[in-house]
Amino acid sequence: MIMDFDTPGASMRDMAAVDPRLTVFEAKPDAPGAQVLEARLENGVKVFDLEASVIRWSILPGETVEAYAYNGQVPGPTLRVTEGDRVRINVTNRLPESTTVHWHGLILPNDMDGPAEITQAPIEPGGTYAYEYTVGQHGTYFYHTHDHVDRQQSLGLYGALIIDPKDPANEIPADLEYTVQLQEWLKRERLTYPSMPMEGGFPNFFTINGKAYPSTETIRMKLGQTLKVRFVCSHTTAIHPMHIHGGPFQVAAVDGETLAESARYLADTVNVGPGQRFDVLWQAQRPGKWLLHCHIPHHTTNNKRRDGRGWRADAGNRGRVLSDLGAGNG
Ligand SMILES: [Cu+2]
């Protein structure tokens, strides 16, 4: 990392590698992230518990990272609620530094919004803060840390917040759905650093839902079916031109807001910038294996992994088989 005499010590700490000795949990190599977290009902309020800690997380067989994680997984648990719900999220901090949680895109009381020192005192290590509000919107949203964000979100403190509409008629219809959460990682000499868009901070591993190709997921569907892909731009370093093979998709919602029919448009690539969300509808028009990947080729590599035949850039870790279609298959 480049530092000069004016770089504050706190910034240097935020850029530092995660101390492996702080790891309190090692996830199983095939443990999935973004698992739907069931709420418990307390006097009509849907209650969720999130706990942030340092974990060891597997992005590929034999390739682990030290991550900051909610509930021991990357991405953090998916919170799925319904428009109109009253929710309470108890956030407990087991990190070595303070943290908060921001509910990106939601209309809520100011002291529930999350920015550290702006709307609340940060949650100190060992502390808990209860976020409570009524959900008035619907669509694809997400939550992420809002303290030491440059470090903590880059290391994994984010998760999807999917809000179903109160009136099912307001749902964007699809046969299947799949949420894509992107993240960049920087691993060097066995240590994990928060990736940052600066000299020395650029990432060398890229994940979809916490896993690099070929450990990413496969969606199986039938010809004619429609898949809703929710791109959740949880990453922090780059804008990723996300592309799906096999025909254009329809952009149906942006940043949680459903587009009017007349405003929807066809595309085959959408520039997914940090913080943005896109709901796109892709129809399986031909049988086969169709890829979903970032169109910056370097983002489809795993640190230029050596495979015995020399360095190769075509490992395609951002690539994944989107559908394995076959007439009568699936
Ligand atoms: Cu990319």
UniProtKB/TrEMBL annotation:
Keywords: Copper, Metal-binding, Oxidoreductase. Signal peptide: none annotated. Residues 56-166, 200-302 form the Plastocyanin-like domain. One of its GO terms (molecular function) is oxidoreductase activity. InterPro entries: Cu-oxidase-like_N, Cu-oxidase_C, Cu-oxidase_fam, Cupredoxin. This is Multicopper oxidase. It comes from Mesorhizobium amorphae CCNWGS0123.
